[in-house]
Amino acid sequence: MTDAGGPDEQLLHRAAGYARRFNTLFEEYFDTLGTRLDAPSSSRFTPACLELLRELSLRGGKRMRVVLLHEAARLVTAEPVDGLDAAALSIELLQTHGLVHDDLIDDSPTRRGGPSTYYAYREQFPHHPHAAVGLTVLAGDLALALSLQVLLDAKVPGAVRQAMTEVQTRAATDTFMGQIIDLERDFTPTAPDEDLLHRVADYKSARYSILAPLQLGLLAAGEQPALFEQDLRRYARLVGICGQLRDDYLDLFGDAATMGKPTGTDIRDGKHSHTVSALLSAPLGDAERAVLEAALGDPACTPETIAAVREIGERRGVADRMRADMRRHAEQACLLAADWRPRWRAEAVTFFERLPLWSVERAM
Predict the structure, then answer these.
(1) For the whole model, what pTM was predicted?
(2) How many domains does the chain have?
(3) Does a structural domain hold residue 59?
(4) 235, 26, 45, 41: which is closest to 150 by C-alpha?
(5) 151 within some domain
(6) What is the mean predicted confidence (pLDDT) over 135-139?
(7) Using CB atoms within 10 A as the burial measure, which of 110, 186, 223, 297 is most buried?
(8) What's the domain range around 41?
(9) CATH number of the domain bearing residue 72
(10) Is 116 helix (H, G, I), strand (E, B) or coil?
(11) Residue 318 above 70 pLDDT?
(12) Is 60 exceeded by the pLDDT of residue 146?
């Protein structure tokens, strides 16, 4: 990073401001949500469900999707833009939906430093496991419906409201298909090829985390993102792949203390992530391959075994190749964003040029 007055620090300061303001907005949204829903007054489970969604939602991190939304609007204008608050709520409610369902699919006990919605219901209904599953599914479904409802209620012209709702509906649909092919990927008899890994990252993450915020921000600012569809999709895909590479890399080669969670989760779960696939296709010796294959899919795999797999990956150049792949995708995304300068405001374009490189730097 540059010094305190450098362009990166200025951009990050602006991003932190978006996040702080949104966190206040999100809290206010949940404070009044119960009064705006037509829930039966006799229901005890509905308020409990809303509280779980609130608690999970307000445990958010950097709110990068919200930042992308605001910076996309700044590509067009530096003036205040109507509809951004509704779009930000929609984006983060869709994210909440994804977290609730992901934790159920992955049987994850924790999320963002607290219990997952699924495990909260399991604790509440220890003798009714089917009820815990059902309520978790319904909680995620409710978050999805709310994410669309806030757009339908947005105080923007009808055509803009419809276009924004269509963007989020497509993003949600693509994400669901991404989750399906993500599960399908782990049933392949051999390590998946790069094309499949990238397709999963595109559908499951890039389209709702990067492409949709870009489109929503441009729409709110009066731009027509459909005119630049291919550019936006290529940029989102590259950034999404870079981010997934980073996450998969850190899962084995990251520092557990810094991340606040143990490494080796994908190994224990037997997931064919970028890292695991790179290990499986590396030129390993017989003894090295035996260590990897014994660890893969073993939920009781010890930290010592994970450390041994990590050492194999470092020795065989897997870590170096993954870092190089991250940087290659990031640099390609930067070049794409640089081409936006004749079209949009240079100050905001700089943010999208720098964003992919921040992703790489977080993995170093």
Answers:
(1) 0.92
(2) 1
(3) yes
(4) 26
(5) yes
(6) 97
(7) 223
(8) 1-157
(9) 1.10.600.10
(10) coil
(11) yes
(12) yes
